[in-house]
């Protein structure tokens, strides 16, 4: 079955471009479009897409509030933020609202496809700038104490993988960085999530940042 996608953006040209590109992918289907967060919420109720590609700065209701409401009502619907803003004032609220992915509009086309696929599978991909701002935010909130409790349950390799996740790397990028197979990275990620009792990569990254493990 194709991944059913709802596009949300207040710029018609952006919607048209995304629709033309993603609509040509055999594994993806554009089921609807919305011009603001309020309209997106109604479309999600009507269409029940698999993934919502969400802009942030929109009239009536912004993308963060729309994401929060969508996740409250339909937690199975995945939200990927696609925006021009990478600063922590936008990144952190979006992640806290429940977004599974955060990418900038400058992203390469195939990276966007990969992010949508990952979100549909319950995985998370963050743009490196967005991940960097998350690290800065949690570092600034930290007391400076490097908490080790919990980290020792991970193997040295799993700790390396977790560190790279917090830097916003995808599985493919981690594999290249550590010179291992992407399948091996996936195995390490699963091990990390199981040992730390977490559900996805975003939770793992945020947990590591809060603990100050890699600051």
UniProtKB/TrEMBL annotation:
Gene3D superfamilies: 3.40.50.2300. The modification 4-aspartylphosphate is found at residue 55. It holds the Pfam family GerE. GO terms for molecular function: DNA binding. Residues 147-212 form the HTH luxR-type domain. InterPro entries: CheY-like_superfamily, NreC/VraR/RcsB-like_REC, Sig_transdc_resp-reg_C-effctor, Sig_transdc_resp-reg_receiver, Tscrpt_reg_LuxR_C, WalR-like. Residues 4-120 form the Response regulatory domain. GO terms for biological process: phosphorelay signal transduction system; regulation of DNA-templated transcription. SUPFAM superfamilies: C-terminal effector domain of the bipartite response regulators, CheY-like. The keyword DNA-binding applies. It comes from the Bacteria. Signal peptide: none annotated. CDD domains: LuxR_C_like, REC_NarL-like. Keywords: DNA-binding, Phosphoprotein, Transcription, Transcription regulation. This is Two component transcriptional regulator, LuxR family. It comes from Kroppenstedtia eburnea.
